């Protein structure tokens, strides 16, 4: 018997989450302990580079300014990932939800956790990477405190560059580079999960919402009938 076929939806979801987390954190630790900030090397020509950067914020380098912004973002991430995890657990209990949709939610959940780990703990377990390679668990302590860590990014795809046409408003004549943001495995996992939901499962939300409402109404009717009896 094929073991994969007899695995529960929860088991498959957890495998997806753990695999993403293991790869994400392994790559980040290797980058952090072998490269200094700003260092890069080519993987495939000039269009795929490993370029080590860190950011204080969200996916693809988006940031909130200041210490309070950082704390807010970290707390928001924890609340959001808790909500996603709760939603995933509800989905795996339903027989009418395809595994493909649950896998998308698992990818989003894993990616969110991956970046939370950086944000929550990297400031404590690593020292700075400016002009040097960082140490894991350094004697002098980390570069920051709990919830003030920086997210490690390294995947860089500067596929092509050029200039905007002169007739374009605001940006005409300016140089552009595609794709400029540097990101990580966790970001990729979130992006793949979100776009897969949009492309393949966007109708499922309304269908599930309708079924949940019907089930709640049936439960209310049954409860009322029991009270009357």
State the major sheet. 4 strands, antiparallel
| N- to C-terminal distance | 49 Å
Q: Measured on Cα atoms, how large is the radius of gyration?
A: 22 Å
Give me the strand/helix succession: HHEEHHEEEEHH
Q: Roughly what percent helix?
A: 55-70%
Shape: globular
Strand order of the largest sheet: 1-2-3-6
Q: Count up the domains.
A: 1
Q: What's the tally of helices?
A: 6
Give the low-pLDDT segments: none
Tally of DSSP β-strands: 6
SSE class: alpha+beta
Strand content: 5-15%
Mean pLDDT level: 88
Key terms:
about 230 residues, alpha+beta, 4-stranded antiparallel beta sheet, two-stranded antiparallel ribbon, 6 helices, about 15% strand
Descriptive report:
The protein is α+β, with helices and mostly antiparallel strands and 229 residues long. The protein has one domain (7-228). It is built from six helices and six strands. The strands form two sheets. It has a four-stranded antiparallel β-sheet with strand order 1-2-3-6. The termini are far apart. The mean pLDDT is 88.
Write a compact overview of the structure shown:
The chain is an alpha+beta fold.
């Amino acid at each position: 018997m094929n073991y994969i076929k007899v695995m529960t939806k929860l088991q498959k979801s957890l495998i997806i989450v753990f695999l993403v987390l293991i790869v994400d954190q392994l790559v980040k630790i290797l980058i952090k302990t072998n490269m200094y900030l700003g260092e890069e090397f080519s993987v495939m020509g000039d269009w795929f580079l490993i370029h080590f950067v860190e950011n204080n914020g969200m996916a693809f380098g988006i940031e909130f300014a200041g210490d309070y912004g950082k704390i807010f973002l970290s707390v928001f991430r924890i609340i959001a990932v808790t909500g996603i995890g709760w939603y995933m657990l509800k989905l795996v209990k339903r027989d009418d939800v395809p595994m493909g949709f649950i896998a998308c939610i698992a990818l989003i959940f894993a990616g969110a956790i991956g970046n939370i780990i950086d944000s929550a703990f990297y400031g404590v377990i690593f020292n700075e990477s400016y002009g040097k390679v960082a140490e894991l668990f350094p004697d002098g302590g980390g570069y920051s405190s709990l919830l003030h860590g920086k997210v490690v990014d390294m995947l860089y795809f500067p596929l092509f560059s050029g200039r905007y046409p002169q007739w374009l408003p605001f940006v005409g004549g300016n140089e552009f580079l595609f794709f400029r943001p540097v990101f990580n495995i966790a970001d990729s996992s979130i992006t793949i999960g979100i776009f897969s939901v949009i492309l393949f499962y966007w109708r499922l939300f309304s269908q599930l919402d309708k079924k949940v409402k019907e089930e709640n109404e049936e439960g209310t009717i049954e409860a009322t009938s029991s009270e009357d009896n």
